[in-house]
Amino acid sequence: MNQEKDQAFVKFRGIEKHFGDVVAVQKTDLEIPEGSLVTLLGPSGCGKTTLLRMLAGLEEPTRGDIFIKGKRINDTPIHKRNLGMIFQNYALFPHKTIFDNVAFGLKYRSASKLEMKKKVDKALETVRLPGVGNRMPSQLSGGQQQRIALARAIVIEPDVLLMDEPLSALDENLREDMRREIDNLQQQLGVTTIFVTHDQREALSMSDKVVVMKDGIVQQEGGPEEVYNHSTNHFVADFLGHSNFINAIVEDKTEKFTKVKLEDGSTCLAVPADEFNNGDKSEIVIRAQKINISYQKDYDKKEGMNFFSGKIMDRSYMGGEVSYFVELKSKQVLHVISFVKRSPYRRGEEVFLTVDPEHCGLLPV
Amino acid sequence: MKKIISGWSLIKIYTLLVYIWMFAPIVVVVVLAFNPQQFGTFPMEGFSFKWFVKLAHNSTILDAFKNSMVLGSLTAIFSTAIGVPAAMAFIRYDFKGKDFLNTLLIAPIMVPEVVLGVALLLFIRWLQQPKSFALLLIGHVVLTLPYVLLIVQARLVGIKKEYEEAALSLGASPFQTFREITFPLLAPAVFAGMLFAFTISFDDVTATLFWATAHNQTVPVQIFSMLRNSISPEINALGAVMIVLTISIPLFAGYISRKFAKGVDK
C-alpha cells in the first residue's frame, strides 16, 4: 500500500462527479507517476476537464479521494494545493504588468523582493521572453501570452502542472511550436504534468501516458504507441487515427493468429486476443495506413497475408499521401491511406488490398 | 427619388420638433435663471446672477442641499456595499432560489414609486416607528440598489472566471483574490453604480415626498413645496444648478469608467 502511494505522485481513487442528474465523471481510478506528462484525451464532454478541475480544487468530487504525494487533498482548498494551472484563454490578469502577473504566486509564498525579481526573471527567460516585464498582457500576442501564463505557473515550483487545452486558442502553425516548447520545458523541469486536450496529435506526440476518455469513463490508458497500436475497444481505435472495422466471428484460435470468418463468408487472420473463444462475435480493426494497395494479387508474396479485392469508389489527394475508399465485394468500404509512390490509382479501378495479420487487431463486440 | 428625399426631410423636421418639445422647457428654466426681473418676459431685459446669489443665502435651500448631498452619498455607499456582494453571489455562485431573489432585488424598478413610498410608510407605521432620516436612507437604498446590481452584474459577467481561478491556483485566498483581481477589474462598474445611486437619490421626488420629515427635506422636495406658495425665479436658479449636477455626474461616471476600463477589456 505504502509502496503504491510512493509510485503514484497523483492518484484518483474511485472519483466521481455528478452535476445534478448528469454524471460528468464515472467512478475513476487513475495514477500518475512523478515527473511524467499525462494527457487526458477525449471529445468534448467526456469528463477530462472535470477530472482536471477536481484535482485543481475548482470542482468538488461527488465521491472518491484525490491524493498528491500520498496526501489526501479533498479538503485542501485550492490556494493551498500548490498547483500551476494553465488555461485555454491564458487568463493573464489584464490590469497587471507581465512582471506582476508572473510574480503573483510568489507574493503568497513569502519571497523577498530581490528573490522575487530573480525568480521572475528566470521564469521569463525559461519561456524565452526576457525583458517584457513592464508590458501589459494586451500588448502581447496569443502565443506570447500563453508563454507568460506558463512562466506564471512554473515560477511557484508547483507539485503538479495542470493544463486545460492550452493550445486550442492558438493558430495552427503556432500550436506546433508551442507544443514542442511545452514538451521540452516539461522534460527540462521534470514537473509532473497533466494535459487536457481533444487533439490526438498533441496527446500522442508529447505524452508519457495517454488516458482516453469518453462519457465520463476512462476507455484506455497507456503509452502513446500502446493506445494507438493496441486499442482495446472500438471507441479508442476509432478516435485515434483512421481505422476500419470489419465484423467477424472467431473460427479457429491458434497460438500465433486467430482465424476469423467475415460476414461475406471469406476468412481472415488476425492477431489473437486471449479473451476470445471459438464462435465469439468480434470485430477486426485495421488502420488505414497499414493496408497495401496494388493491381496485382500477388503484390505481397509474404505468406499468410490477408487479401481483399475491391473497387476504388473515391479518393482524395493530400500531397504526400492519398486517401482511398475501396468498396469490397461485401459492399463494405475500407479506408486506405497510402504514400504516393507512382501516379495514384483512379476512381473505378479494380485493386487488391493486402494486410499483414500483425496489423489486424481483434476487438470484442 | 425626389419623393424619398422629401420623406426623409419630414422625418428630420419631426425629430427636431420632438427634441424641441423635450428640451425647450429646460432651456427656458436655465435662461430665466439669469433674468433679473421677477416675472419672466422675453426678450430678457438684462443678465444677472441675482437669483443665484439669493439662492446661496436661502438657508432652507442650503439645508435641503446639504441633506440631499448627505443622503445621496450615504445611499451610494450603502447601495454599493450591498450591491457588489449581492452581484458576486448572483453571478459567481449557484444557490437555491437565486432567480427569485434576484428578481426581488430588481423589483423596485418595476413597482411605481408612489406604491413604494406609501408601502414603506405604512410598514414603518405598523412597526410603530417615527419617520426619520434612517427611513429615508433605507428607502433610497431600496430605490437605487437595482441599478447598482444591474451595472455590477453586467460587468461581472464580462470578467472571466478564469482570472479568479488562476489567482486561486497561484495561492491567493478567496478574499485576496477578490481584493487583487475581481475588485480592480470591477472598479469601473462599482464607481458608475455609486454615481448612479447618488444621482437617483439626489433627484427623487415622488417617494421622498412620503418619507421626508420637516427636518430632512431634500432639494427636489423643497422645490416642490416652494412652488406651492409662489413662483420665485430662485427656483429657476435652483433648477439650473440641479440640471448641471444631474447631467454632469453620470457623464463624469461614464468618462471615468471608460478610462478605467482601458486595457482591461479585450
Notes on the protein architecture:
The complex is a heterodimer of chains A (365) and B (266). Chain A is α+β, with helices and mostly antiparallel strands and 365 residues long. Chain A folds into two domains: 234 residues, Rossmann fold, CATH 3.40.50; 123 residues, OB fold (Dihydrolipoamide Acetyltransferase, E2P) (Beta Barrel), CATH 2.40.50. Chain A contains nine helices and 20 strands. In chain A, the strands form four sheets. A six-stranded mixed sheet of chain A has the order 6-7-8-3-9-10, sandwiched between helices. A five-stranded antiparallel sheet of chain A has the order 13-12-11-14-20. The radius of gyration of chain A is 25 Å and the shape is elongated. The N terminus of chain A is likely disordered. Chain B is an all-alpha fold and 266 residues long. Chain B has one domain: Orthogonal Bundle (MetI-like fold). Chain B contains eleven helices and no strands. The chains are: A alpha+beta (365), B mainly alpha (266). At the A-B interface, strand 6, helix 3 and helix 5 of A face helix 7 and helix 8 of B.
